[in-house]
Here is the input.
Amino acid sequence: MSINPSSAGAPLTPSGVSLPKVTMPALGEMKRQGKPISALTAYDYPTARLVDEAGVDLILVGDSLAMVVLGQENTLSVTVDEMLHHTRAVRRAVRRALVVADMPFGSYHGSIADAVANAVRFVKEAGAEAVKIEGPRVELVRALVDAEIPVVGHLGLTPQSVNRFGGYRVQARTADAVLELQADAFALARAGAGTIVLEGVPREAAAAITAELSVPTIGIGAGPDCNGQILVFHDLVNLTFAPPAKFVRHYADASALFRSAIERYREDVEHRAFPSDAESYHLPARMATGAAGRQATGVPAVGADFDSDEAVVNRDAFEDWAN
Ligand code: KIV
Here is the structure.
């Protein structure tokens, strides 16, 4: 068993990124070396594959799932079972990035024992390599780390506090609030959090905390001075059907791309332009009697020269049968 896998000769992703697994200690090392950490959310297999193959360091199965995938008004109603379901799909796709599961609202707000038991489910049943929890829950972070579960802290505009905050408001806007945020970040780091997400806080506050903190900060709406940045995948590609927050940059317009593809497909179906003959399967040549045979659409007659071993079981078999 290799204890310290070397990156030498490691396979590359399609984007040419080398594959040594990103771990929580590796993120700390990136901070020490001044290398920015890239992070993005993903909630399913295909997007997680794309994000991982693009070389993003950390993939968060965020509870933002509730809003951007499940169409809910806020993040509060998503359940542990829903988060586990999506974390499993992401885990199957990822080879390099650190996979972090967001603990949903209610799953860590009771006893510490219950919270640890819920976190263990994310590791054991879904393959998460760390969990993220919102707020300055220092005792819980200590208990999770004692249970060998790496923790990502999350401070500032914590969306699970939306009702207490009275909306999604930028936090730490006074000197006292900045000091409190700073104290919370230090306490989480001392308790063992491996990295801390800072969301919706003034750039200056995030910069000051980042400069002093022993572990990396990952910002979202916290300015460019954090050790890394995270965005919600659906924000990045404009798939949210809502005006973007100030900190969002659209790197693509997936809404326009998908809308156009779907409309062209519908039009082709309506005009019988899809599928074409070339996109159709045909009876084997030995059964076809000229052009009429090629046009046959029914099931072969009983006793016809049809090899049942060629029965279709998947798309590859379709290809073999048709050629
Ligand atoms: O749920 C989420 O997507 C998050 C990130 C925005 C940090 O918590």
Q: What stands out?
A: Strands lie at 37-41, 58-61, 98-102, 130-134, 151-156, 195-199, 217-220, 228-231.
